[in-house]
Predict the 3D structure of the following.
Amino acid sequence: MTFDRSIKIAPSILSADFANFGAECRAIEQQGCDWVHVDVMDGHFVPNLTFGPPLVAAIRPHVKTVMDVHLMIAPTDAFLAPFAEAGADRLTVHVEASDHLDRTVSAIADLGCKAGLALNPATPETEIEYLLDKIDLVCVMTVNPGFGGQSFLHSQLEKIRRLRAMIGDRPVHIEIDGGVTPETAPLVVAAGADVLVAGSAVFKGGSVDTPDVYGRNMAAIRDAIN
Ligand code: DX5
Ligand code: ZN
């Protein structure tokens, strides 16, 4: 089966209504998102605290596409199984959060999840050089992790280009996370990205009662790329 590198939009529920996660997941999927991005934060690796495995389990029945769990936690390994058992399809860990990345990536695969590695803005792409044949995704942070609604870091475009060259025809997604809007999406796609995480750009101005706004916001990103 050929690797699907078509452009995907993965709304981050960090920007969703925290009192309505199930309905919000159903709404963005009905409006055409490709994946659902779940931002897990521990208040230690990043200066914010969100949710854990119980939230993943609670929204699992409402997510029919792909649950893309972004673990902004350290240490990582003790929580891999709980998130996998809760229903995560993909587990992405930060290279800065594990002392034994090869072992962490193998542990994710052993749990039956797709393994992703995330790079903070200051982390060079060479950090993942020896894991390119073991991972399914590289997440380039285009903001400093911890919050939605931040400004896009254009310095990361060169990293995306270098990653695209490093990956070659390996079946590895390049995911962009932070500050993705109709203005920045074309830049990252031109540099080689294929998965676009977007929180505020998707959820802004909408609600579970007005989900068509989500659809229009995603269409604006897709139109900007095409
Ligand atoms: C930041 C998270 C991002 C964030 C994206 O730490 O990893 O996924 O929610 O939000 P926007 O798209 O608003 O920058
Ligand atoms: Zn994220």
The helical segments are 21-30, 53-59, 77-86, 101-110, 156-167, 185-191, 200-203, 212-225. The beta strands are 8-11, 36-41, 67-72, 90-94, 114-119, 137-141, 173-177, 195-198. The mean pLDDT is 98. The domain at 8-225 is CATH 3.20.20.70 (TIM Barrel).
